[in-house]
Amino acid sequence: MRSGTTSSGFKFEIDEQDLNDMEFIELMADAEENPLKYPKMLERMLGKEQKKKLYDHVRTKEGQVPPDAIDKEVEEIFILAGEDAKNSESSPA
Tens digit of pLDDT for each residue in 19-71? Predict the structure, then answer.
């Protein structure tokens, strides 16, 4: 498991096995070509409950969930998860 907190305060936990999966990679590629598939990719990465928490985290006072805010959070999650992986690889067992 990899966990962290984005700079805006969103706490996440993801299973690195889910990220290292060809079907997840295909979902990412599909979402890049067709943004309508992005929510499905998010759900696979975070699970239903965390996806809802992410949406609520970036929700505006008007009730909107801005896609650019989601993109920013997801990009940071990938960066933080990657840093976590580097740190665990360099740590003695």
Answer: 888 999 999 999 999 999 999 999 999 999 999 999 999 999 999 999 999 99
Q: Are 75 and 6 in contact (CB under 8 A)?
A: no
User: What's the residue count for the chain?
Assistant: 93
Cβ pair 24, 33 in contact under 8 A: no
Measure the CA–CA gap between 59 and 75, rounded to whole angstroms: 17
Domain coordinates in residue numbering, the chain: 2-90
Q: In sequence order, what are the residues at sequence separation of 6 or more whose Cβ sits closer than 8 angstroms to the Cβ of residue 1?
A: 13, 14, 15, 16
Determine the Cα–Cα distance for residues 22 and 49; give it in Å rounded to an integer. 23
Task: Give which of 27, 19, 77 is closest to 53, Cα–Cα.
Answer: 77
